[in-house]
Amino acid sequence: MAYNWQQKDWPHFQYDLTDVEDVLLAFAEKTGLASGLLKGLPEDMQTEAIIDMMVSEAIKTSEIEGEYLSRKDVMSSIRKNLGVGGAIAQVSDKRAEGAGALMIDVRNSFPEPLSQKKLFDWHVMIMTGSRGIKAGAWRTHVEPMQVVSGPIGKEKVHFEAPPSEQVPKEMMRFIKWFNATGPGGKEEIKKPLVRAAVAHLYFETIHPFEDGNGRIGRALSEKALSQGIGRPVLLSLSQTVEAQRKEYYAALQRGQQDNEITDWVTWFVNLGLAAQIQAEEQVEFTLRKTKFFDRWKDVLNERQLHVLQRMLEEGPKGFKGGMNAKKYVAITGTSKATATRDLQDLVEKGVFIPAGGGRSTRYEVKL
Q1: pTM of the entire structure?
Q2: Where do the domains of the chain lie, and which CATH numbers do they carry?
């Protein structure tokens, strides 16, 4: 079977929304609810909720591609770009610096029409710190751009993108399509989540860059959603995708077989709703976290507060596997005896819930 881009009707996508009308309605409602929750928070808490969301997106969009970034560096990069407190003077990982810069630019530039320059700028950002990749340019290599798996000699080709020589023409047409389907465009797609789904599949099919296509494709989905709702969208698509990575690649592969893409749109729309529900939970968590620290800031010592802050940066459940004496020592630089006393004090005050026993004792935050 020929890939979608090899077929006569490329890139005239067709899809049926009958089975997802309720999901699209729920997404619109949840988007409004999340926005209302955010606006109901004090300004500093709004900023924290937005930063938490951008950090999650930056980290997870990189993890999907097998690149693991320091949360501390990503957080610092975003804070520095936003001009808010809490940033360290120097981000040690240049990749994290680029990922943070991308999050800020996607958010700030969402109303602007898409352009080749914008895509090249994004590519330069995510390739910061990478070697051997020509950043800010379409791919030009002669060999096929393939998505493969399996050991050398037994590779399985899941998809082959258009040849490099076709990329400039294909991307010119894609950029024109993206702008024409936006709000007020001649070919406007009125459902933001549907436009985001089609844009992602369309871009990933062309696969215009040597590397980084997935991250830019998800950024384009975010841009489409933000344009559709008229403000920066408050969710992390990548956090939801990363949790369903296998299903994501399978759905994408199926979508690249034909230009009738109902199956892909249905999958992506449900993904978007899940991401918006998760965002709502994240805003509520930010509120709970703020109240939590207001309660304990004058009761706990600086070591304890630092550990709690570090744990809750990871989300409502804190560190995977919980806190233990060894992690406490590593974070605070204190002695094991002091760590043990601090941990026991946190349990006695009701801040920590212990689990296990003996050397395997771990602690969860009672938020």
Answers
A1: 0.88
A2: 4-285 (1.10.3290.10), 297-365 (1.10.10.10)
